[in-house]
Amino acid sequence: MTVSDGAADGDDTGALTLDVDHDLSGVGSAQDITVDFTDNAGDDTTSTTFDITSARAPGDPATVYIGEEDVDLTALPGVDAGSAATFTGESGDADGSTASIGDGAFADITEANNFQAGGYDSPGATGDTDRELFVIEPQVTDVTIYSGSGTGGADVTDGSIVSDEDTITIEADWNFDAAESVDIIIEDEDGLEVQSQLSGTASIASSGGNTELTGVDELDTGEYTVTVEGEDDLDGASRSATFTIRDEAQSISLSQSTVTQGDTAVATVTGTPGEYGLVRISADDLDDLDATDASAEDVFASTGDVEDRRGTDALTTEDDYVGAVVDLDDEGEAQVRIRSEYLDTTTVDVEFVELDAPDTTDANVEAGFDAGEDDSAELTVEEQSINITSAPSVVRIGEEFVIEGTAPESDDVKAYARIDQNYVPLVDEDDDFSEDDVDSNGEFSVDIDSGSEISLPDSYRIAIVADPVDDDGTDYLTAANQDDEISSDVYSEFDTKATTTVRTVEGDLTAQLSSSNIAADVGDEVTLSGSALGQGDAVRVYLIGPRGNFLDASGNSQAAESIDVDEEEFDEDYDAFTRRGQYTFIVVGQGRDGDYASDIGFGGDALRSDLTPQQAVEIINDEYTGAGVDDQIIELTLSAENPSLTIDDFTTDGQVAQGEVTISGTSNREDETTVFIEVLGENENVIASDEAEVNGSTGEWSTTIDMSDVETGTYTLRADDDEASASLEFELVGDVSTPTEEPTPTEEPTEEPTEEPTEEPTEEPSGTEEPTDEPTETSTSTPGFGVIVALVALIAAALLAFRRD
Question: Is the whole model's pTM more than 0.70, yes or no?
Fold first, then answer.
């Protein structure tokens, strides 16, 4: 409360003026509120009245914003002051929902009251009346930061200003200016607010308006975040942008400090927003270019920020340069691409000068060429290089091999082999030259056929040349020069090359059959497989039948087969065995020269049909052997027989003990042929059964049958593969009886001499020799007792002989 003397000068009435402050924020709407003022004695009282109303009454229809509080909606039908009201959603996110308020004169449009963006009918709406209440999500839609006073300066939103800039202007747009203004908050990199350090109003009253803040030059360098948000209830609606205060007004930096000649580097320059700058390079650093030549401007690419490229051909300057004029734009930054292919292989100074005016007139550019640089950066340009990253040391003649590597900033590479004193261009297996385009990351891959120029076993120096052009300008990638051998002198003129040594050796051919015998005329197959190292992309196979006829894999007569080689291996299934007898496979590889000595059966001479098997084999061997022929030949034989199946004897003297029993046997059927095994009892009823598969490479099969629960007795084991069968009878017993071994005839005679003679010399020193089967105490024997002993021994020997019989 404030008390003041309200009387005029000379007035002695003693009148006073009272100013009273009272917090009414918790009071709802009210009309004609009476305030009484009474003195302490109660002798005098005076009164006054006032109304409490909402700060905002949008009318009918009403537009409100989520988050607003104390909005007067009593203009809407069915909404009264001091009374609750419910609204029905009819559109948008609000469709199908309801929202409520507690007091129509002080409505809270909040999510707590279930308000959502959309249109609502008021409680008093009748029939198909239009929606009366529109609820909108509050948003700050745009924030723009300008350098200097007003919006005519450079737009530095998310950009930068120099540290001596005093003023920034902030402009904002939002969709709730009917309800609130917005506040501006500026935070440094530590999250501390700094707007209080600036002069000016840190708020904007109307959408689309702006405010100027001064004293920015007193802030530290770094990045600042400008946030615009609702000033009261709607402070949840916000939008942010940044600006950076930097130390230096002009600077230059490079995307990379070292490049290979032919590569590019990007120069980024910063300066005063809205001005122009000049990026320049001395003419002394140009590679075979003169700055007075207009083509020198090609050092700089015509990128988006480049306004003009200039050499000194049409300018009068103190120093020779080539340069690019760039627009620093509102952000005070520009970029230009530098092409190092036009620069010497040295360290180049790339300089930046901010021009006096934002234009490309001769006078302005000349002044930039003559001025001292504001900043500079060093760019080191290295010679082009080529590297071999992967190459075999040994290859088999006839194979195609690959050499990989990198050649950054080169366009193409080509492979040569040094033979004698010349370099011979190499080819791949398709007889195309061994060349490759260098891809975007500088890598290449060259395919080389070892069966062409390097087909003799030896060590070869393989050279990979990038962009092969000699001093006379001859391009060895063009069609007219592509197959030219080059001398060592010409080779030395190539700028970019690398070498590796590759030793070529004779190739190798192997072949084998999955089985050495097969069942005839039942459709069984054998697999012919092998490896073909340095034998080209296919091998030839001649199959000769028991009657001298030639067959292919399917049994077609008078035909031969060419089998593809995949990753140096091949295989083919044959089922051409309709007759019993011997079949001969002849496998032929093309050797190191990449050609076959004969084309018999493959477009050359036809295969004859009137031959014996021996003649057919000899003819094929003759075709691929002889002087100067290096084809490799392998001969394999296969025996085709009637289907057969055997069972190995798994019994002990015809007996088998209850439990798990291993059954095995042999078969001449193809690999994985199923053998059905059954244990048959009386009347051939099946007691137990199982299946086994034939191992084609060994001709064996086996399985285990559990006969633990089978009663003892006599059974028959039968094996059948649908083409052949075998059986074996056995007795199943609890335990197999093992015959007791009798002593061998030599056991008795050998034991007696070892015991008796050792004591005789000590007992009878007389030297009289006694029979070895006599007792040692012969001197005390009863007369005639020796005859009895001999008789007993004779009887024992007779019994032993009888037992053996």
Answer: no
